[in-house]
Design goal:
Belongs to the histone deacetylase family. This protein is an alpha/beta fold. Helix content is about 35%, strand content about 10%. A seven-stranded parallel beta sheet has the order 1-2-7-6-3-4-5, with helices on both faces.
Length: about 400
């Protein structure tokens, strides 16, 4: 059963314009790089259609949809978080945003129908959009819409893991009261970064208590610390929750060169994350894995390489880190951006080894691990202080 890749050049229409950091060129460069390396050879791309209004209303208010439709006609500062520096109004905003949602929905439908075990949509991952307002470059929340759709089509245990540098606040908010959805977010500490949420004490409410999980990491966290935190929390929770499908938001703004945040991961660290997510989907989610993109603002040096690794991992066509980038790709980028520093291999040369949690260390990453485990592990019948859990 071949994994599914959702892509169409029309997705480049989600363009916030001008010098906005959320530049769709990162998607085009990724697809071109993946093709140049042979990662997509023989893969028939699935072409999406815009999400219907019925599906958008799963997580968004009707008045908000109308505001998005009318915003290009109304100008700036139209309310609902639209017309701001982060979320400027652009032509065909509703249509372009609905197409992103439709792309992730198509990935979800392929997995739900059993036509694919894994599906990737690098254009997705708009995890900040809220029920009635845009936020953090995100107009409609494709992740939340797809999860809602899955809940109505045969799935009642869904795990969402967010590896973006920013807290996955919109997805958490959509399911904060729903025990059927486990949301886990690893992100830079909210005291130091937008959106200012994602403390370890945010754990869900009512019957869903314990199904919102947050691991706020200190600025400067590198691959070793990030991977230690991930492996100290995520595998145990997935094993206990037993999800039927794993949905992951794979933003790459956690990279040390990203201009909008302060974690210090490498492309090699991202590759290690994707390999671990693939493994965990196989162990705990019947192999069902839906992966979407997200943030990432180092448009040439980071995003294309990291998301090519994501595509390769999902397709079981892992790219050796030392693989040279295709000369045609490098030359075309240098021609378009003569002053850009262009990478030449698929690695940053970083060591992704890490020290497992539980050896008594008390550095800031271990404090974050301890706080998160103590907040949620007892609610899952796990011992927060036992490294075997």
């Amino acid at each position: 059963m071949q994994p599914a890749v959702v892509w169409d050049p029309a997705l480049l229409g989600y363009d916030l314009g001008g010098e906005h950091p959320f530049n769709p060129v990162r998607l085009e460069l990724t697809i071109r790089l993946a093709r140049g390396l042979g990662v997509l050879d023989g893969i028939g791309m699935l072409v999406p259609e815009p999400a219907s209004e019925t599906d958008l209303l799963r997580v968004h208010a009707a008045e908000y949809l109308e505001a998005v439709k009318q915003a290009p006609l109304s100008g700036w500062d139209v309310g609902h978080g639209l017309g701001t520096m982060d979320n400027p109004v652009f032509s065909d905003m509703h249509e372009a945003s609905a197409l992103v949602v439709g792309s992730t929905l198509l990935a979800a439908r392929e997995v739900a129908a059993g036509r694919a075990r894994r599906a990737v949509n690098i254009a997705g991952g708009l995890h900040h959009a809220m029920r009635d307002h845009a936020s953090g470059f995100c107009v409609y929340n494709d992740c939340a819409v797809a999860i809602s759709w899955l809940l109505d089509h045969g799935f009642d245990r869904i795990a969402y893991v967010d590896t973006d540098v920013h807290h996955g606040d919109g997805v958490q908010a959509a399911f904060y009261h729903d025990p059927r959805v486990l949301t886990i977010s690893l992100h830079q500490h909210p005291f130091t970064l937008f959106p200012g949420t994602g403390h370890s004490s945010e754990i869900g409410t009512g019957e869903a208590e314990g199904t919102a999980v947050n691991i706020p990491l200190p600025p400067g966290t590198r691959d070793a610390g990030w991977l230690r935190a991930f492996n100290a929390v995520v595998p145990s929770l997935l094993a206990g929750f037993r999800p039927q499908v794993l949905v992951t938001q794979c933003g790459v703004d956690s990279h040390e060169e990203d201009p909008l945040a302060d974690l210090s991961l490498s492309v090699d660290g991202h590759r290690a994350i994707y390999a671990r997510l693939r493994e965990l989907a196989g162990e705990h989610a019947d192999g069902n894995w839906i992966a979407v993109g997200g943030g990432g603002y180092r448009l040439i040096r980071v995003v294309p390489r990291s998301w090519t690794h994501l595509l390769a991992t999902a397709l079981d066509r892992d790219v050796t880190p030392t693989t040279p980038l295709p000369a045609e790709w490098v030359d075309s980028v240098r021609e378009a951006a003569p002053s850009a520093e262009v990478p030449v291999t698929m690695t940053d040369g970083a060591d992704t080894g890490y020290r497992p949690w539980g050896d008594g260390n008390d550095d800031p990453v271990d404090v974050a691990i301890r706080d998160t485990r103590r907040a949620v592990f007892p609610l899952h019948g796990l011992d927060p202080d036992d490294p075997r859990d």
